[in-house]
Amino acid sequence: MTHPNVVPAPQRRDIAGGALLVDRLLAGINKRQRMPLHQMDIRDARNAYADACVQLDVGAVEGVRTQVLSVVAPDALELRVTQPPAVDVTQVLVWVHGGGFCVGNAASTDLLCRWFSAHLQCAVVSVDYRLAPEHSVRQALDDVIAAITWAAREFPGARLDVLGDSAGAALALPAVAHCVSEAGVCVEGLVLCYPLAAPGAVTASRERYAQGHYLTMADVEWMHGLALLDECDALLQPLQRFHWPQGMPTSLVVLPHRDPLFDEGQALVHHLRATGCVVSELHMPDFIHGCLHMGGLFPQVRGMHEHIANFVRPPTGGEELNK
After folding, report:
1. Are 239 and 197 in contact (CB under 8 A)?
2. Are residues 153 and 123 in contact, defined by beta-carbon separation less than 8 angstroms?
3. Residue 321: pLDDT band with limits 50, 70, 90
4. Where are the beta strands (DSSP E) in 46-179?
5. Other residues' Cβ atoms within 10 Å of the Cβ of residue 302
6. Domains plus CATH for the chain?
7. From CA 284, how far away is CA 89, in angstroms rounded?
8. Looking at residue 9, what is its pLDDT?
9. Is 272 exposed, middle or buried, given 0-12, 13-18 or 19+ CB atoms closer than 10 A?
10. Cα-Cα-Cα-Cα dihedral sign, residues 197, 234, 165, 239
11. d(CA 65, CA 141)
């Protein structure tokens, strides 16, 4: 299944296949008729979201260790730092989880963070940013900024990359821009997986995939209502930002096509390029929102992981990696 009006573009790769298995997954989910997130109380929704991330993600990864650190930056912030033991850290990847700003946590994405740490032999700093409705999106953004600056300070001289998915991607982009312009942090690569880029927008993909494709628009609207996104548009409207600071990193945007957020993700690619940023695209024509955490089910998702790892992998032999 290919999204209409998608044309080949420079710096683009497609990972094809998987439609039948994705259809089976969706059919199984729909058959079970589990209560949707927007009908749960917030605690049950958070547990259900975390369970789904763990159940579908890559398997156990050995050879790395994870420690939980509490830092003051300036508010109390919990970070999960995963790295191989007895290895000099030459690269650190800051991971910003998704979850609509109100569900999701760093612990539920440990498996994927451990995979990147082992695969790249790098440190992964996973941010437990503050969630709505108890906290504002502005506070979540402050936490992500603090985590990036903490990683740059704690691992001096190491290559620094930032990766976020969905709401995490929506936080990662302005956080990186702030760190580059205000703190002088050098971020080498930025990976945005199915980013939220136009809260409240009416798009063809939001209508086409409003239900039956894992992420539903009813859940999106519920989460964004809890996060009071109408009151923080300036933070989360990159399509309305026409200036990015000098030194913005090369970016990779991952776009599954069967996703309500596909159209705004594609628009973000074009907008970033038009405003001077260097952007590559990875398209998953048969996949759905949240697929980054489905490596336990789909070989195509494991191919996505490999592509992201190659994108952020430091070049060797003085040659720049062709991204």
Report:
1. yes
2. no
3. very low
4. 65-72, 76-83, 91-96, 123-128, 159-165
5. 16
6. 12-312 (3.40.50.1820)
7. 32
8. 45
9. buried
10. positive
11. 27
